[in-house]
Amino acid sequence: MERICVRLSLKQRYLLLFCVAVCAGIVYHRSRSQVGSRRMSRTDGLQANASQFTLGGKPFRILGGSIHYFRVPRDYWEDRLLKMKACGINTLTTYVPWNLHEPERGVFNFEDDLDLEAYLQLAASLGLWVILRPGPYICAEWDFGGLPSWLLRDPNMKVRTTYPGFTDAVDPYFDLLIKKVVPYQYSNGGPIIAVQVENEYGSYAKDTEYMPFIKEALLSRGITELLMTSDNSQGLNKGAVKGALETINFQRLHPKDIKYLDEIQPHKPKMVMEFWSGWFDTWGDLHHVFPAEDMIAVVTEVLKMDMSINLYMFHGGTNFGFMNGGLAEGLPLPKPMITSYDYDAPLSEAGDYTTKYRLLRNVFSHYHPEDLPKTPFLSERQAHQPAVIHQHLSLWDSLHFIDKPFKSERPINMENLPVNNHNGQSYGYTLYETAINSGGALKSNNNIRDRALVFVEKQFIGVLDFESLELMLPDGKGKRTLSFLVENFGRVNYGPSLAEQRKGIVGDIEFNKKPLQDFLIYSLEMKPAFINRLQTSGHWVSMRQRPSFPGFFQTKLHIKTQPKDTFVKLPGWGKGVIFVNGRNLGRYNSAGPQQTLYLPAPWLKRGENQLMVFEEKESDGKVQFSPSADYGMAVDVK
Known about the structure:
Blueprint (H helix, E strand, L loop, with lengths): L1 H22 L30 E2 L2 E2 L3 E5 L9 H10 L4 E5 L2 H4 L14 H10 L3 E5 L30 H18 L10 E5 L13 H10 L6 E7 L12 E6 L4 H10 L6 E6 L10 E3 L2 H13 L3 E8 L10 E2 L7 E2 L18 H11 L21 E2 L2 E4 H4 L7 E3 L20 E8 L3 E4 L4 E2 L1 E6 L2 E7 L4 E4 L6 E8 L16 E2 L4 E2 L2 E2 L3 E6 L3 H8 L5 E2 L8 E9 L6 E4 L5 E6 L2 E7 L6 E4 L7 E9 L6 E5 L7 E3 L2
Parallel strand pairs: 3-4, 3-11, 4-5, 5-6, 6-7, 7-8, 8-9, 9-11, 10-36
Antiparallel strand pairs: 1-2, 12-13, 14-35, 15-28, 15-29, 16-27, 17-23, 17-27, 18-22, 18-25, 19-24, 20-21, 20-23, 25-26, 29-34, 30-33, 30-35, 31-32, 31-34
Helix pairs in contact: 1-4, 8-9
């Protein structure tokens, strides 16, 4: 009941802000039944016809910041946007993740934390303009660059091209998405002043007809605002499309890049669509930071050059669940992104002000005729007492709660499994089992995507991955079960290898020089329904009995007062995933650099909270908490 009251009060605040905005002439009436009859109309939207933007016929400089609604709990949208406004930002930019909005082909989700319309309405009510970046590809260090994995069921799929299998999938998605956002354009009284055509296509550039296709897909569905493209310096020109303003992405300012922008677009406004305020991290690496003084020096110089700017990111948020992408370009092996997307941004993962925020606010204040709004108060944190694990359940016993396994003569990749209404498995783990009658040499032929724990009769033998391609299996009597627990680390989100992101076992595995056959395949996507079935099962075993690995571990967190934000710590654990009240917080890994997982207060409740950990190899027996984040040892971005 208490959670319901909190949610209602938040909606009431939205309504109050919205009503005030309407009275001020900022936004239009949202009701779909009245769009067109009662909405306000405006002319002279964002124009790029001279060396400086104009909006409403007046000079306008974009002071932008990126916050992705899908990386922030909905309960905190208002808090983060108010902090953005107080920093002097006048324009919000956000991507739109296709893979979340259409998780199965023809099945769409724009509810709750994915309510894009509510996000746009909130931005408008707070007086923020919006640059929308609808994709369909977004990069964003997000799994598969935001593309849905079911595209890969097509063996001939060519993503980000005019291949009919791809365009036939984009069209119905854009039919729905663009219909939703068209009423929120500036010309209709809404906050959207510009729309980006795809994203950094110059770094991919496999089809000269693709960008015109995406541009027409937007225009034909009712987009009327200024179109833009976004590329790094190497991708400029190759990522361009006629009729869209080219913008540039960088972290360090190179005058030759600005000169090139001037040359290809004389007498046009110059804009940094992505000024990288920090950087992302990968598991097993160090935590990347971009010094505040270096960031401010670039921002100051860009503004002195009379350019517009958008900070990517202003507030990074979190790759909750299995949504992190992977880094592959220029590396011998793919590297998965960590769960945090703090990004060393001006506003931290948990919404804290940083040195960058304070310095940036001072710089931006000089570009506003009036004083900036006061900075909102920060929310309190809470460090709970450690929650001691009291029950465990082996992976093998959890298989009772998974849908019936699929039989196949040969291994099948995750995306082609006949699950999720024949849309395949998108995320998590997949268990492949077959039989052997002897010991011998096991060779993966590099067909494991991305890492397999190998077991014989449920006993751990070793790991197969991009580096370890062979294992010796011990001799034994009779027929024995050989198991591969394969984890999808996160699909690569950038570069030419996008079309090669099928996961699981993607080809034959050889045993004693012969391909293994006759598999049972279990889909372990670990969706909320599965986690809830586990929690309420009677199969759990007391910790007095020694646990086996991999396995699930369960405990309760009791909170006596109104919940506050906290961070989960798992020292002494190895690698896995943690769930709180059925929500997947994301992956943890003792390899670091990330040592804590952000747990937002709205996902907790007063009283009893269920905690479940899936751990691959070792357990400390308790879940710990901290009032602050720990992202590991830091290194400057080069």
